[in-house]
User: What shape does this take?
Amino acid sequence: MPEFTHSAVMVAEVVAALRPESGGRYADGTIGRAGHAAAILAASSPGGWLYGCDRDGAAVEAAKRKLAEFAGRFEVRQGNFGELADWVPPGSCDGVLLDLGVSSPQLDEAERGFSFQQDGPLDMRMDRRQAVTAASLVNEASVEELAQIFWELGDERNARRFARAIAREREHRRLERTRQLAELIEQLAPRQGRKAHPATRVFQAIRIAVNDEIGSLQRGLAAALTILRPGGRLAVITFHSLEDRIVKAFGRARARDYTFTGGMDVPELREPRAPELKWVQRKATRPRSPQTRAAAARRCG
Ligand SMILES: C[S@@+](CC[C@H](N)C(=O)[O-])C[C@H]1O[C@@H](n2cnc3c(N)ncnc32)[C@H](O)[C@@H]1O
Assistant: This one.
Protein backbone atom coordinates (compact mmCIF):
# COMPACT_ATOMS: atom_id res chain seq x y z
CA MET A 1 0.00 0.00 0.00
CA PRO A 2 1.47 3.43 -0.85
CA GLU A 3 2.10 5.64 2.16
CA PHE A 4 1.09 9.26 2.44
CA THR A 5 2.97 12.20 3.88
CA HIS A 6 1.84 15.81 3.84
CA SER A 7 4.28 18.57 4.69
CA ALA A 8 5.30 22.15 3.92
CA VAL A 9 8.41 23.70 2.33
CA MET A 10 11.98 22.66 3.38
CA VAL A 11 13.71 20.73 0.62
CA ALA A 12 15.80 18.44 2.79
CA GLU A 13 12.90 17.36 4.98
CA VAL A 14 10.61 16.73 2.05
CA VAL A 15 13.22 14.81 0.09
CA ALA A 16 14.06 12.71 3.16
CA ALA A 17 10.33 11.89 3.52
CA LEU A 18 10.49 10.23 0.09
CA ARG A 19 13.36 7.99 1.34
CA PRO A 20 15.39 8.22 -1.88
CA GLU A 21 17.75 5.33 -2.59
CA SER A 22 19.81 4.09 -5.50
CA GLY A 23 17.63 2.13 -7.88
CA GLY A 24 14.47 3.96 -6.75
CA ARG A 25 12.12 5.75 -9.16
CA TYR A 26 10.66 9.12 -8.29
CA ALA A 27 8.31 11.62 -9.89
CA ASP A 28 8.39 15.39 -9.34
CA GLY A 29 5.15 16.81 -10.77
CA THR A 30 6.19 20.43 -10.15
CA ILE A 31 9.84 20.39 -11.12
CA GLY A 32 10.21 24.20 -11.26
CA ARG A 33 13.90 25.07 -11.17
CA ALA A 34 14.66 21.49 -10.03
CA GLY A 35 15.72 22.27 -6.46
CA HIS A 36 13.88 19.24 -5.07
CA ALA A 37 14.56 17.15 -8.18
CA ALA A 38 18.33 17.67 -7.94
CA ALA A 39 18.24 16.75 -4.25
CA ILE A 40 16.25 13.58 -5.02
CA LEU A 41 18.68 12.57 -7.78
CA ALA A 42 21.71 13.31 -5.58
CA ALA A 43 20.25 11.31 -2.69
CA SER A 44 19.36 8.37 -4.94
CA SER A 45 22.76 8.20 -6.68
CA PRO A 46 24.04 6.37 -8.52
CA GLY A 47 21.01 4.45 -9.78
CA GLY A 48 17.90 6.53 -8.93
CA TRP A 49 15.60 7.72 -11.74
CA LEU A 50 13.37 10.79 -11.89
CA TYR A 51 10.30 11.59 -13.99
CA GLY A 52 9.66 15.32 -13.88
CA CYS A 53 7.12 17.71 -15.30
CA ASP A 54 6.01 21.30 -15.08
CA ARG A 55 3.30 23.23 -16.91
CA ASP A 56 5.74 26.04 -17.48
CA GLY A 57 7.98 25.61 -20.54
CA ALA A 58 10.61 28.00 -19.13
CA ALA A 59 10.78 25.96 -15.92
CA VAL A 60 11.22 22.74 -17.91
CA GLU A 61 14.16 24.20 -19.84
CA ALA A 62 15.74 25.55 -16.64
CA ALA A 63 15.22 22.20 -14.88
CA LYS A 64 16.91 20.29 -17.73
CA ARG A 65 19.91 22.61 -17.52
CA LYS A 66 20.10 22.29 -13.75
CA LEU A 67 19.92 18.48 -13.93
CA ALA A 68 22.62 18.17 -16.63
CA GLU A 69 25.02 16.55 -14.15
CA PHE A 70 22.47 13.71 -13.72
CA ALA A 71 22.18 13.08 -17.51
CA GLY A 72 20.75 9.64 -18.31
CA ARG A 73 18.86 9.44 -15.02
CA PHE A 74 15.78 11.55 -15.70
CA GLU A 75 13.00 12.33 -18.15
CA VAL A 76 11.46 15.81 -17.95
CA ARG A 77 8.42 16.92 -19.95
CA GLN A 78 6.24 19.99 -20.15
CA GLY A 79 2.78 19.11 -18.86
CA ASN A 80 0.26 19.10 -16.07
CA PHE A 81 0.88 16.72 -13.17
CA GLY A 82 -2.77 15.72 -13.58
CA GLU A 83 -1.55 13.80 -16.65
CA LEU A 84 1.41 12.06 -14.99
CA ALA A 85 -0.27 8.66 -15.29
CA ASP A 86 -0.46 9.10 -19.10
CA TRP A 87 3.30 8.67 -19.43
CA VAL A 88 4.77 7.40 -16.17
CA PRO A 89 4.29 3.60 -15.88
CA PRO A 90 1.63 2.57 -13.34
CA GLY A 91 2.92 1.24 -10.02
CA SER A 92 6.49 2.24 -10.88
CA CYS A 93 7.38 5.02 -8.43
CA ASP A 94 8.86 4.85 -4.95
CA GLY A 95 8.09 8.51 -4.33
CA VAL A 96 5.99 11.30 -5.84
CA LEU A 97 6.37 14.98 -4.96
CA LEU A 98 3.94 17.82 -5.67
CA ASP A 99 5.15 21.29 -4.58
CA LEU A 100 2.04 23.33 -5.30
CA GLY A 101 1.68 26.94 -6.39
CA VAL A 102 3.83 29.37 -8.32
CA SER A 103 7.59 29.67 -8.32
CA SER A 104 9.71 32.72 -7.47
CA PRO A 105 10.86 33.11 -11.11
CA GLN A 106 7.22 33.24 -12.22
CA LEU A 107 6.45 35.93 -9.64
CA ASP A 108 9.61 37.90 -10.30
CA GLU A 109 9.08 38.25 -14.05
CA ALA A 110 6.62 41.13 -14.51
CA GLU A 111 5.75 39.90 -18.04
CA ARG A 112 4.17 36.74 -16.58
CA GLY A 113 1.55 38.91 -14.88
CA PHE A 114 1.39 37.01 -11.56
CA SER A 115 2.39 39.87 -9.32
CA PHE A 116 0.54 43.00 -8.24
CA GLN A 117 3.82 44.44 -7.04
CA GLN A 118 5.09 45.04 -10.56
CA ASP A 119 3.18 46.19 -13.60
CA GLY A 120 2.72 43.58 -16.30
CA PRO A 121 0.08 42.12 -18.61
CA LEU A 122 -2.79 40.38 -16.80
CA ASP A 123 -1.63 36.94 -17.87
CA MET A 124 -0.94 34.47 -14.99
CA ARG A 125 -0.78 31.38 -17.22
CA MET A 126 1.65 28.77 -15.96
CA ASP A 127 1.40 27.10 -19.37
CA ARG A 128 1.60 29.88 -21.91
CA ARG A 129 0.14 27.64 -24.61
CA GLN A 130 -3.33 27.79 -23.00
CA ALA A 131 -5.95 30.22 -24.28
CA VAL A 132 -7.44 31.49 -21.00
CA THR A 133 -5.51 34.36 -19.41
CA ALA A 134 -6.21 36.51 -16.36
CA ALA A 135 -7.26 39.31 -18.74
CA SER A 136 -9.77 37.12 -20.60
CA LEU A 137 -11.22 35.95 -17.28
CA VAL A 138 -11.42 39.39 -15.67
CA ASN A 139 -12.93 41.01 -18.79
CA GLU A 140 -15.30 38.25 -19.84
CA ALA A 141 -16.57 36.43 -16.73
CA SER A 142 -19.92 37.53 -15.30
CA VAL A 143 -20.16 39.40 -11.99
CA GLU A 144 -21.49 36.20 -10.38
CA GLU A 145 -18.60 34.12 -11.72
CA LEU A 146 -16.00 36.64 -10.55
CA ALA A 147 -17.59 36.95 -7.10
CA GLN A 148 -17.63 33.17 -6.77
CA ILE A 149 -13.96 32.92 -7.81
CA PHE A 150 -12.89 35.63 -5.30
CA TRP A 151 -14.95 34.08 -2.53
CA GLU A 152 -14.19 30.40 -3.07
CA LEU A 153 -10.59 30.57 -4.26
CA GLY A 154 -9.44 33.68 -2.40
CA ASP A 155 -11.59 33.70 0.75
CA GLU A 156 -12.15 37.36 -0.14
CA ARG A 157 -14.93 38.81 2.00
CA ASN A 158 -15.44 41.75 -0.42
CA ALA A 159 -15.92 39.30 -3.29
CA ARG A 160 -19.19 40.74 -4.65
CA ARG A 161 -18.12 44.34 -4.19
CA PHE A 162 -14.88 43.80 -6.06
CA ALA A 163 -16.64 41.83 -8.82
CA ARG A 164 -19.19 44.61 -9.34
CA ALA A 165 -16.46 47.26 -9.43
CA ILE A 166 -14.54 45.28 -12.07
CA ALA A 167 -17.70 45.02 -14.18
CA ARG A 168 -18.26 48.80 -13.92
CA GLU A 169 -14.63 49.52 -14.80
CA ARG A 170 -14.61 47.31 -17.88
CA GLU A 171 -17.59 49.18 -19.32
CA HIS A 172 -15.11 52.03 -19.90
CA ARG A 173 -11.87 50.15 -20.67
CA ARG A 174 -10.58 46.60 -20.70
CA LEU A 175 -8.47 45.60 -17.74
CA GLU A 176 -5.19 44.54 -19.33
CA ARG A 177 -2.50 45.29 -16.73
CA THR A 178 -1.80 44.00 -13.24
CA ARG A 179 -1.39 47.55 -11.95
CA GLN A 180 -4.83 48.59 -13.24
CA LEU A 181 -6.46 45.76 -11.30
CA ALA A 182 -4.35 46.23 -8.16
CA GLU A 183 -5.12 49.98 -8.09
CA LEU A 184 -8.83 49.41 -8.63
CA ILE A 185 -8.94 47.06 -5.62
CA GLU A 186 -6.81 49.41 -3.53
CA GLN A 187 -9.23 52.27 -4.20
CA LEU A 188 -12.09 50.13 -2.88
CA ALA A 189 -10.22 48.74 0.12
CA PRO A 190 -7.41 51.09 1.11
CA ARG A 191 -4.48 49.52 2.93
CA GLN A 192 -4.84 51.41 6.21
CA GLY A 193 -1.65 50.04 7.72
CA ARG A 194 -2.37 46.40 6.78
CA LYS A 195 0.72 44.45 5.80
CA ALA A 196 -0.86 42.51 2.95
CA HIS A 197 -1.85 44.36 -0.20
CA PRO A 198 -5.67 44.44 -0.49
CA ALA A 199 -5.41 42.76 -3.92
CA THR A 200 -3.54 39.71 -2.55
CA ARG A 201 -6.59 37.45 -2.34
CA VAL A 202 -8.06 38.60 -5.64
CA PHE A 203 -4.79 37.88 -7.45
CA GLN A 204 -4.50 34.47 -5.80
CA ALA A 205 -8.07 33.60 -6.73
CA ILE A 206 -7.65 34.66 -10.37
CA ARG A 207 -4.40 32.69 -10.66
CA ILE A 208 -6.03 29.55 -9.25
CA ALA A 209 -8.97 29.91 -11.65
CA VAL A 210 -6.87 30.70 -14.75
CA ASN A 211 -4.72 27.62 -14.15
CA ASP A 212 -7.56 25.37 -12.93
CA GLU A 213 -5.34 24.59 -9.96
CA ILE A 214 -8.04 22.84 -7.95
CA GLY A 215 -9.06 20.50 -10.79
CA SER A 216 -5.39 19.83 -11.54
CA LEU A 217 -4.69 19.02 -7.90
CA GLN A 218 -7.55 16.54 -7.74
CA ARG A 219 -6.38 14.85 -10.95
CA GLY A 220 -2.75 15.02 -9.81
CA LEU A 221 -3.42 13.27 -6.49
CA ALA A 222 -5.30 10.48 -8.30
CA ALA A 223 -2.49 10.21 -10.88
CA ALA A 224 0.10 10.00 -8.09
CA LEU A 225 -1.75 7.07 -6.61
CA THR A 226 -1.75 5.30 -9.99
CA ILE A 227 2.01 5.65 -10.53
CA LEU A 228 3.09 4.85 -6.95
CA ARG A 229 4.12 1.30 -6.21
CA PRO A 230 2.91 -0.37 -2.98
CA GLY A 231 4.95 1.15 -0.14
CA GLY A 232 5.88 4.21 -2.23
CA ARG A 233 5.38 7.66 -0.72
CA LEU A 234 3.52 10.79 -1.75
CA ALA A 235 4.64 14.17 -0.37
CA VAL A 236 2.65 17.33 -1.06
CA ILE A 237 3.77 20.86 -0.23
CA THR A 238 0.77 23.17 0.01
CA PHE A 239 0.76 26.92 0.20
CA HIS A 240 -2.79 27.92 1.08
CA SER A 241 -5.64 26.47 3.09
CA LEU A 242 -7.81 25.43 0.14
CA GLU A 243 -5.06 23.19 -1.26
CA ASP A 244 -4.34 21.95 2.22
CA ARG A 245 -7.98 20.91 2.75
CA ILE A 246 -8.12 19.11 -0.59
CA VAL A 247 -4.92 17.17 0.10
CA LYS A 248 -6.04 16.18 3.59
CA ALA A 249 -9.52 15.16 2.37
CA PHE A 250 -7.88 13.02 -0.32
CA GLY A 251 -5.58 11.42 2.27
CA ARG A 252 -8.50 10.70 4.61
CA ALA A 253 -10.71 9.23 1.88
CA ARG A 254 -8.02 6.97 0.45
CA ALA A 255 -6.79 5.81 3.85
CA ARG A 256 -10.26 4.57 4.91
CA ASP A 257 -10.92 0.85 5.05
CA TYR A 258 -14.43 1.39 3.70
CA THR A 259 -16.32 3.40 1.09
CA PHE A 260 -19.75 5.00 1.18
CA THR A 261 -22.06 6.43 -1.45
CA GLY A 262 -24.41 9.41 -1.47
CA GLY A 263 -21.99 11.85 0.14
CA MET A 264 -22.89 10.89 3.75
CA ASP A 265 -20.80 8.57 5.87
CA VAL A 266 -23.55 6.50 7.54
CA PRO A 267 -21.96 3.60 9.48
CA GLU A 268 -24.70 1.12 8.48
CA LEU A 269 -24.12 1.82 4.77
CA ARG A 270 -20.35 1.43 4.73
CA GLU A 271 -18.79 -0.96 2.22
CA PRO A 272 -15.54 -2.50 3.47
CA ARG A 273 -12.49 -2.30 1.20
CA ALA A 274 -8.70 -2.32 1.53
CA PRO A 275 -7.27 1.21 2.16
CA GLU A 276 -5.30 2.62 -0.75
CA LEU A 277 -3.02 4.80 1.39
CA LYS A 278 -1.51 4.81 4.84
CA TRP A 279 -0.80 8.14 6.57
CA VAL A 280 2.85 8.47 7.44
CA GLN A 281 2.46 11.97 8.82
CA ARG A 282 -1.01 13.36 9.25
CA LYS A 283 -0.03 16.72 10.71
CA ALA A 284 1.62 19.13 8.28
CA THR A 285 5.23 20.16 8.84
CA ARG A 286 5.43 23.96 8.84
CA PRO A 287 8.35 26.08 7.68
CA ARG A 288 10.39 26.83 10.77
CA SER A 289 13.15 29.30 10.05
CA PRO A 290 12.35 32.99 9.40
CA GLN A 291 14.05 32.60 5.98
CA THR A 292 11.78 29.74 4.96
CA ARG A 293 8.71 31.61 6.17
CA ALA A 294 9.81 34.67 4.20
CA ALA A 295 10.34 32.51 1.10
CA ALA A 296 6.88 31.02 1.53
CA ALA A 297 5.32 34.46 2.00
CA ARG A 298 7.06 35.74 -1.11
CA ARG A 299 5.36 33.11 -3.20
CA CYS A 300 1.95 34.66 -2.77
CA GLY A 301 2.74 37.63 -4.91
C1 LIG B 1 6.73 26.09 -5.98
S1 LIG B 1 7.24 25.81 -7.60
C2 LIG B 1 8.13 24.31 -7.53
C3 LIG B 1 9.57 24.49 -7.16
C4 LIG B 1 10.37 23.21 -7.25
N1 LIG B 1 9.92 22.22 -6.28
C5 LIG B 1 11.85 23.47 -7.08
O1 LIG B 1 12.46 22.83 -6.21
O2 LIG B 1 12.40 24.31 -7.80
C6 LIG B 1 5.78 25.26 -8.34
C7 LIG B 1 5.92 24.86 -9.79
O3 LIG B 1 4.82 24.01 -10.08
C8 LIG B 1 4.35 24.27 -11.37
N2 LIG B 1 2.98 23.79 -11.40
C9 LIG B 1 1.94 24.28 -10.69
N3 LIG B 1 0.84 23.54 -10.95
C10 LIG B 1 1.20 22.57 -11.81
C11 LIG B 1 0.52 21.49 -12.44
N4 LIG B 1 -0.77 21.28 -12.26
N5 LIG B 1 1.23 20.66 -13.25
C12 LIG B 1 2.56 20.87 -13.46
N6 LIG B 1 3.25 21.89 -12.91
C13 LIG B 1 2.58 22.72 -12.10
C14 LIG B 1 4.55 25.76 -11.55
O4 LIG B 1 4.65 26.10 -12.91
C15 LIG B 1 5.87 26.00 -10.78
O5 LIG B 1 6.97 25.92 -11.66
Remarks:
- The radius of gyration is 20 Å.
- The pocket of S-adenosylmethionine is lined by residues 29-30, 32-36, 53-56, 59, 80-82, 99, 101-103, 126, 216, 220 (CB under 6 Å).
- The chain is about 40% helix and 15% strand.
- The longest strand covers residues 228-237.
